[in-house]
Amino acid sequence: MNVIILGGGIAGISAGYHLKKRCINNIIFEKDPDWGGLCGNFTIDGFRFDRFVHFSFAPDESDQRLFAGNIGMYEHTPFPSNYYRGYWLRHPAQNNLAPLTVDEKVKIIADFVTRPQKDVSEINNYDEWLRVQYGNYFAENFPFAYTRKYWGLEAKELETKWVGIRMYTPDIKQVLAGSFQTQEECFYFAKKMFYPKKGGFKSILNDCREGLDIRLNKKVIEINPSSKTIKFSDDTIAEYDRLISTLPLPEIIKMLPNVTENVLKAARDLRYTCGYQISLGFNRPDIAKYLWFYIYDEDILSSRVYSPNLKSPDNVPEGCSSLQAEVFFDNKAQRPSADIVLQNTINKLIEMKIFDENDLIVKDIRFEPYANVTFVPSIYENRKIILDYLDTLGITSIGRFGKWEYAWTHQAFADGKDL
Fold first, then answer.
1. Do 132 and 115 meet the contact criterion of CB atoms below 8 Å apart?
2. What residue spans in the chain does CATH classification 3.50.50.60 cover?
3. Which residues, including other chains, have CB under 8 Å from residue 207's CB and lie 6 or more apart?
4. How many Å apart are CA 359 and CA 281, to the nearest integer?
5. Can you list the residues of the chain whose pLDDT is less than 50?
6. Helix, strand or coil for residue 73?
7. Looking at the chain, which residues constitute the CATH 3.90.660.20 domain(s)?
8. How far apart are CA 316 and CA 416, in angstroms?
């Protein structure tokens, strides 16, 4: 059987690895000049940066051992921070209010006590969900602002099935305790997170991709399910018996002939974020203070900033440190130029007293067309229309953008295993 896998990211490599374990030969075609997809990385003057930010918290022990391989993992307890109008609050902010003024703490706690009481079945959107969980004042000043920065939409435009364990809801005792002093307990949904000791995050796939037939710089432009052929931008053609795709649903639909209008419309209506990665390297070892932090101020374009050197010292030259900021936009929004985003990020981080200009020795900005799936109410119907259509064509679609899910890396890896 001639099995072709489109995409050399974590889902595609997992599919190839698990098929090969079962003696099923396969070829992975990847459009980029390197494997890894959004788990990949790049290096500038000895500074390594991942394509967007990842940690592993895979629950399956066999996956943990596979990801660790021969290089091992650093174990991190996730104690991120939050920047809000000049204050630094430990995460989650909703029960770490101690640094705020008395006036603001009173407003937050008073609204938390009197917040609307609704059953989940009565909540219609993310706006209502946030008000029910945290009260109006906190919702409007913290997650509403962050939603606009991270998703590029208002909270009322999102539904809520995606939230799950991602947002912590404290009780009144935790809110009160955290308003007097910083709480030492880790409230993050994953209590331990892991990162490879060497080679960046993509190293979790080292053992899996060993011996796989991965062909790079192979961008698909046409798929013909009738003849079971794939045409690439270099004018080569490949034949398949079985086709597995990790490509984003809106992209694969463009590659197919004679797509019906209802499927085309469903693909057009899918919402997602695109994003810039701003990667900064410093000539001092002490710039990074937090594994990562969130920024709520809307005049600062960055929504999250991570510290590659705290994830692993292998990511920077000796005596140096690094930061990587993420700036997201809704796919239908007009976004500012890369130069504007880069300068805003640098200027605002300097204003926040993160670093001085003369500390900066590497600066880089890159754009990713697909960052996160956005959960507007129409997602489930549109996603089903497209996946059902692909199924009729004998195309199996997996991975975060292939199944159109808010999947963590171990969940995307599981797609390949389940296949």
1. yes
2. 3-36+208-268+376-418
3. 66, 69, 70
4. 8
5. none
6. strand
7. 41-78+190-199+272-373
8. 32
Residue 381's H or E segment, with its range, is helix 379-392
Residue 137: its H or E element = helix 136-141
- Return mean pLDDT, the chain: 97
Closest to 104 (Cα-Cα) out of 126, 87, 124, 79: 87
Class of domain 3-36+208-268+376-418: alpha beta
What are 243's two structure tokens?
A: 């086709």
Contact between 321 and 287 (Cβ < 8 Å): yes
CA 381 to chain centre: 23
Name the E strands within 228-301: 229-232, 237-239, 242-245, 272-282, 292-295
Yes or no: say if 84 and 297 are a contact pair by the CB < 8 Å rule. Answer: yes
Q: Is 272 helix (H, G, I), strand (E, B) or coil?
A: strand
Count of positions (residues) in the chain = 419
In angstroms, rounded to a whole number, what is the distance separating the alpha carbons of residues 175 and 173? Answer: 5
Question: Does domain 41-78+190-199+272-373 bear CATH number 3.40.190.10?
Answer: no
User: Residue 278: which of 370, 151, 363, 347 has the closest Cα?
Assistant: 363
Residues 196, 243: Cα–Cα separation, whole Å: 31
How would you classify the pairing of strands 193-196 and 73-76? antiparallel
> Who's near 334: CB < 8 A, 6+ residues apart?
none
Distance CA 344, CA 361 (A): 17
Residues 156 and 314: their CA atoms lie apart, in Å, by 42
Task: Locate 310 and state its tokens.
Answer: 């705290």
What is the value of pTM for the model shown? Answer: 0.95
Residue 119: predicted pLDDT: 87
Beta strand 304-306 with 237-239 is unpaired
Structure-token match 């003696």, residue found: 23
Query: What is the end-to-end Cα distance of the chain in Å, rounded?
Result: 15
The residue with tokens 């959107």 is: 125
Q: Is 325 helix (H, G, I), strand (E, B) or coil?
A: strand
User: 268: part of which helix (H) or strand (E)?
Assistant: helix 261-269
Q: What residue type is 374 in one-letter code?
A: T
pLDDT at 120: 82
Q: Is 323 helix (H, G, I), strand (E, B) or coil?
A: strand
